[in-house]
Structure formats: structure tokens, C-alpha cells
Amino acid sequence: MKPVIFDVDTGIDDALAIAYALSSPELELLGFTTCFGNVPVQEATRNTLAVLEMVEKDVPVYEGASQTFKRGMKPQWARLVHGKDGLGNVLKAEPLKRAASGSAEDFMIKQVKERPNEITIIAVGPLTNVARAINKAPEIIPLIKNVVIMGGAVNVSGNVTPYGEANIVADPEAADCVFSSGLSVTLVGLDVTMETLLPLAKMDEWRDVHSKTAHFFADMTEHYIGAYESFYPGIGGCALHDPLAVGVVIDPSFVRTRLMNISVITDGEEVGNTVGNKEGETKIHVCTEVEASRFLDHFLDRMSKVMHS
Ligand code: BDR
Ligand code: CA
């Protein structure tokens, strides 16, 4: 089992990624850490706890950053895409459990020191918590096995601006800190995630299971697909951004990668642009191709386990 810390800003694709990770025996989930992003951090924490409650798993959740790493930039929530509650408006009640005590960054630092060279961090929101952890304790940088990041758009256009992808645009200085730190990184950007489309037709198949969990995930995902249709008319589905980052940890052969240095534009019109450069030393593996249908089958198989249990 691969020990994992999962950093999330729980909107809808984060929720799918959480369920996928929790139903995958290859992963040992040590804890979730939350960040502002799709929603304010308190809501990301609540949504993470709500998903855990829905799938009946007990993993600690540590609340993290409520604002950006350096400049205290005003965050832009993604309620149009992820709904008023960040989960496609499916939340009916507050989760019973609360976040664990302690901060996200301290949890990361402690776990990495306890298990040097073992832990993979999967980060699918703005990179603020990771940046804070390595800024506070730079000695952990060589002790983290790998950071698998959903973020960026290297050879393709962005999704919130022509250049920028949402997680990087939300905190470009945190991203810059992470990419220039010497950390071992796998970058799962829009270059590959936009090829992983979950079709609308699957939602009825999910509902046919007739479990509470199936309806929870089908209803929220249908909201997400609706948002995709409004932004990309005729697309017929939604991109599985955050689940693909989990998939790459479970089975790295879902993607092909290329070693590149990544610099992040932190200001101006191109803010959040992740610029790839093949020169010089680097430990950043940029995903350039994905076996989308094999990944989708794997994701659907694991989701079906979640819905039938
Ligand atoms: C990323 O932005 C968020 O809205 C999603 O959860 C995903 O992590 C896609 O650009
Ligand atoms: Ca996310």
C-alpha cells in the first residue's frame, strides 16, 4: 500500500477523487488536508467530511490555508461550476464529525518526518498547503517521495484564462514555490485531464444502483456535467481532473510523462501560466499523454464498489 496525504479543495471532482482513493486498496490514506479553492476552506473541510460520512470511512481531515501563500490575493470561488455548496447542491445536513486539531502543514511535516521517503502527497487544489509546509520545514523536501499535482496547462490553453488553470491561478506564488523547490513532482495538468471525460449517460447507470451513495454522486456529477456543457457546448461529459491524479498514483502507466522544468508566471495577463522548459536538471514529470478509456474503466469500476457498499 502506498501511504498518501490527500490535499483537496473539495468541490465535485475532488469528491469523486476522494471516493476513488478510498475505494482503492493500493492506497493507504493517512489523512486529508483542505485548502481554499473551489470554495472557502471551511466549506472544503465540511465537504470532505460529508463525503467521508457518505462512504462510511473514518480518515482524519486537517484544515489548511484560507488564503494565498504570499500576497493574500482575493480568492475567486467556483460556485458556478461546483454549486452553491461546492457539491452540486446535494448536501442535506452538516456532517457529524469535525476536523482534527492541528494545521494541514503541520500534519504534512509530521507525517513526512515519521515516514521519510515513503509518502506521496496528492494535491488537487491550490498549492498553498504544500508551499507552507516546505517553507516552514525545508528539510522535508528530499523526504517526500513524490507530489502528484492536478494543476497547470503546459501545452494547452487554460480553463480560467487563456493561459491559466484554476488551481495554479488561485495561488501562483505557492505553485512557483513548489515547482522551484526541487521536490519530485508529477504534474497532471489539463494536457491530460481534459481527455478524461465522464459521459452524462453514466449518471443513469449510477442511479440504477438505487443506493444513497449512488444518488449522492450521480446528482452532484450531473450538476458538474451541466456546468461543463455551458462552458464547452456539446462536450457531453465532465473532465475527471482530480480523479486522474489519484489514478496516476494507483497505476502510473495510465500516463506518459516528460521531464521538464516548470516556471509559473506570477503576474500580469499570463498569471498562472505554467511554462515548460526541457533544459536543465529537474524532477518534474509532466504528463503529456493519457490512456483515457483504460483510466475511465478503472475509475468506474472503483466507483461502482463505492455505490454498491
Ligand atoms: C481543477 O480546478 C478545480 O475547480 C477542480 O476541482 C480541479 O482541481 C481543474 O482545473
Ligand atoms: Ca480540486
TrEMBL record:
Q: Which InterPro entries match?
A: Inosine/uridine_hydrolase_dom (IPR001910), IUNH (IPR023186), Ribo_hydro-like (IPR036452)
Database matches in CDD domains: nuc_hydro_CaPnhB
| Top-level lineage group | Bacteria
Give the record's keywords alphabetically: Glycosidase, Hydrolase
Task: Specify the Inosine/uridine-preferring nucleoside hydrolase domain's residue ranges.
Answer: 4-297
Q: Name one Pfam family in it.
A: IU_nuc_hydro
Its name, as the record gives it, is Ribosylpyrimidine nucleosidase
